[in-house]
Design brief:
Elements lengths: L2 E4 L25 E2 L3 H15 L38 E8 L5 E7 L27 E3 L3 E6 L2 E6 L7 E7 L3 E8 L2 E10 L22 E10 L7 E9 L1 E8 L2 E8 L1 E4 L2 E2 L3 E4 L2 E4 L5 E3 L8 E9 L7 E8 L2 E6 L3 E7 L4 H12 L5 H11 L5 H17 L3 H22 L3 E10 L2 E11 L8 E4 L2 E8 L6 E7 L5 E8 L4 E8 L2 E7 L2 E8 L7 E9 L1 E9 L2 E7 L3 E7 L7 E8 L16 E3 L4 E8 L2 E10 L3 E8 L12 H6 L4 E5 L2 E5 L3 E6 L5 E6 L17
Parallel strand pairs: 19-21
Antiparallel strand pairs: 1-15, 2-19, 3-4, 5-6, 6-7, 7-8, 9-10, 10-11, 11-12, 12-17, 13-14, 14-20, 15-16, 17-18, 20-21, 22-23, 23-24, 24-25, 26-27, 27-28, 28-29, 30-31, 31-32, 32-33, 34-35, 35-36, 36-37, 38-39, 39-40, 40-41, 42-43, 43-44, 44-45
Length: 709
């Protein structure tokens, strides 16, 4: 059975209601739904036929030799259980025990607020005020909820002296993140799926699950009633094929984004299915929204909306078919989806055909022209053209085949290079009462780094991008109106460098680019049609994350020799200054906060900054006093290891006590690792108490691989 999985990363988020109030309107059509399954199929097949029209259409010529039978073991790719995962785009066919304790795997290539609660406690560090982001820990000021291995543990955390584990919720999949909203707990997770042909047996207990061996996964969304914290009750169990990408919580609603594969097998498309409390809903083609844009790959994007105010965790969903997506930004009223722009398929096909005709004889050109002038749709034309060219290719000599493949490959590469200018498509979707109100699409040059490179402010959408690489890299900021038309731009900032971090705050924006030094830019966006560079500061190192201290000061977290924390004074935007910095360690030092803003704990009222810092194998919590007057001062560190001596034999043990998050309740600092919740006095970091989290980890670990649907 031939199976094609069209690869890409897609995302969208349904959030809030309403739309932009200023500067431009949506004049484009609303999102369309497919009129039938056949329309969906034709839409996908057209793009598949053209996107796969390259040199792979013509098998490499080979000289035929007399057949020599070889042992089966010589025909199978061998892989040690400790080897890295295979490359993307393979399907695992078989795995079984091999000689001398080895295992072998055969592959085929495929295309592809309650009583006792403290009123003073920290929450997850998020980008937009009022829009919560899921994380591995949450607190309500009394209890702490922790994702630990394959369970969520509820800890009675306040007062700290009496802290204890109240209960644990165990699941047969891997929890990733959680939300907490009053008496409702939402657990988001996934479980890896393996192909049916894979012969995992009980005599293969020690083969680890390599990512390259996975062909799909299943996303789980469980809603628990935690009115009784010692006995949580499951009220909603949702699951579906796909990969969990992102989620947000706005008021009493949680929105979960799932990227589901578009499986095209034996000429049929597998429609998405959503399971909930034992029932299964198949999403019909006529329920799937799509954008009338062609791309080289597609995936279903399934958006779940869960109403936590309902006792049963009522839910609804929307399904989209989109092209490759990079990032999302969510405001209270709008969703912005930033997609890497693929080829304009119809235009690409016409240009490619014009170029390929030059290397074909007259009779073949005539046949192709006949097909092009027929009433067939674009996908059918591409299929017929492939057939004509394959027949021509099969009749060529050995040397002619090699020459043709080379010339054809160069033609394809030249056309793609000319047409694949680096651009990002931005979709804006507003939601009212669960219905899509309008669709606006805009386009900006370059690529978007992350969610902090985008922002909505007073009716305008701002986005920072980078174009090119190395010596040709340039950086830009674009301002778009309500119709997503570019109305203001700043281009060619910091030539030869790329954006490492960005933050939009009101009518200002702050950018950090880097190659050898860290230019810290202050931008004036008060006039959307005339943005300006106000000031620039060049210092060693760079910042991966920017966080506002107050209206005139910015905290930067990044690297120089080791992990660097800096405090910038932007009270005079034309002359920004680094007024304080603190560096930890050397080149091997790292912090989870460099790649995940949720690991960053800051409180201006407490002059508190806490970050996990250490090596890639494990990190301790570094606690700083930060203020404009005194700068950044280390108060001390908190470790979860009684003996911090590190050896390779204790690697997994060390990782279990690597601090990943921190929070405060009242005047107590809580640090959390996979194995421990530890409590220290914020004033002097003296130890108060600790709670060991339940663990099923054994040394050495043993992996089993049950067959999973």
């Amino acid at each position: 059975m031939k199976k094609i999985v069209l690869p890409c990363v897609l995302l969208i988020l349904l959030a809030g209601a309403g739309g932009l109030q200023k500067s431009g309107v949506c004049e484009q059509e609303q999102l369309k739904r497919f009129s039938s399954y056949e329309e969906l199929k034709n839409f996908v097949e057209t793009n598949l036929e053209i996107a796969t029209f390259d040199a792979s259409c013509f098998p490499a010529p080979s000289i035929k030799y007399p057949r020599v039978d070889r042992p089966l073991t010589d025909q199978i790719s061998w892989i040690s259980s400790a080897a890295p995962a295979p490359f993307a785009g393979i399907t695992l066919l078989e795995a079984r025990a091999g000689d001398a304790g080895r295992d072998y795997v055969r592959y085929v290539i495929t295309k592809n607020a309650e009583t006792g609660t403290s009123g003073d406690y920290s929450t997850t560090n998020t980008q937009v005020e009022g829009i919560d982001e899921a994380d591995i820990i949450k607190t309500d000021g009394k209890f702490i909820y922790v994702v630990s291995e394959n369970r969520v543990v509820i800890v009675d955390a306040y007062p700290a002296e009496n802290a204890r584990v109240l209960s644990k919720i165990e699941v047969d999949w891997t929890p990733i993140e959680i939300f907490i909203n009053g008496n409702k707990l939402v657990i988001l997770g996934r479980r890896s799926s393996y192909p049916d042909e894979m012969a995992w047996r009980i005599d293969l207990p020690r083969v680890p699950p390599h990512p390259g061996l996975l062909i799909s996964s299943r996303v789980f969304v469980n809603v628990y009633d935690i009115t009784n914290k010692e006995n949580p009750t499951l009220v909603r169990d949702i699951s579906l094929k796909g990969d969990y990408f992102s989620s947000r919580m706005i008021g009493g609603y949680v929105y979960v984004v799932v990227n589901a594969p578009l499986n095209y097998s034996n000429g049929e498309i597998e429609l998405p299915k959503i399971s909930s409390n034992g029932g299964v809903k198949t999403v019909q083609a006529t329920e799937i929204y799509h954008f009338d844009t062609f791309d080289s790959s597609y995936k279903f994007t399934i958006v779940l909306s869960i109403d936590l105010l309902r006792d049963d965790g009522g839910w609804s969903s929307e399904v989209f078919l989109m092209g490759t997506t990079q990032n999302i930004y969510v405001s209270p009223n709008n969703i912005y989806v930033a997609c890497t722009k693929g080829l304009d398929v119809p235009r690409y096909w016409g240009t490619l055909l014009d170029n390929v005709m030059e290397i074909l004889p007259d009779n073949v050109r005539s046949e192709i022209n006949r097909v092009e002038s027929s009433g067939l749709n674009l996908g059918e034309k591409a299929r017929e053209t492939k057939t004509i060219m394959r027949k021509y290719y099969e009749n060529l000599s050995y040397e002619e085949k090699w020459n043709f493949r080379g010339e054809f490959g160069r033609k394809v590469s030249d056309v793609k290079a000319k047409m694949s200018r680096e651009k990002t498509i931005i979709h804006r979707i507003s939601i009212s009462g669960g219905e899509i109100k309008c669709k606006c699409t805009g386009e900006v040059p370059g690529r978007v780094l992350n969610q902090f490179s985008m922002d909505e402010y007073q009716g305008y959408f701002r986005v920072a991008t980078t174009t090119g690489w190395d010596m040709w890299a340039r950086n830009n900021v674009y301002i778009l109106d309500g119709g997503l038309n570019i109305v203001g731009r700043l281009e060619n900032l910091a030539p030869t460098e790329r954006i490492y971090s960005a933050r939009f705050l009101g009518d200002k924006a702050y950018l950090v680019t880097f190659r050898r030094v860290d230019p810290f830019f202050v931008l004036d966006l008060s006039d959307p049609r005339n943005p300006k560079v106000l000031g620039e500061l060049k210092i060693p190192g760079y910042s991966d994350y920017l966080h506002p201290y107050d209206e005139t000061h910015i905290i930067g977290v990044g690297r120089d020799a080791g992990v660097k924390i800096a405090l910038f004074d932007v009270s005079d935007p034309k002359n920004p200054k680094e007024i304080s910095k603190y560096e930890v360690g050397s080149w091997g030092t790292y912090s989870y906060a460099l790649g995940n803003h949720k690991a960053f704990l800051f409180s201006r009222s407490k002059s508190l900054l806490v970050m996990p810092i250490g090596g890639y194998w494990g990190q301790d919590a570094y606690v700083f006093h930060i203020s404009v007057d005194n700068g950044i001062v280390l108060k001390g560190t908190v470790s979860h290891l009684e003996n911090d001596a590190y050896t390779w034999s204790s690697y997994r043990y060390y990782r279990s006590y690597s601090i990943k998050r921190s929070l405060y309740i009242g005047n107590v600092l809580y640090t959390i690792s996979d194995g421990l919740v530890k409590m220290n006095n914020l004033a002097d970091l003296s130890a108060i108490n600790s709670v060991k989290l339940p663990s099923s980890v054994k040394w050495p670990p043993i992996y089993y691989h049950p067959m999973i649907e």
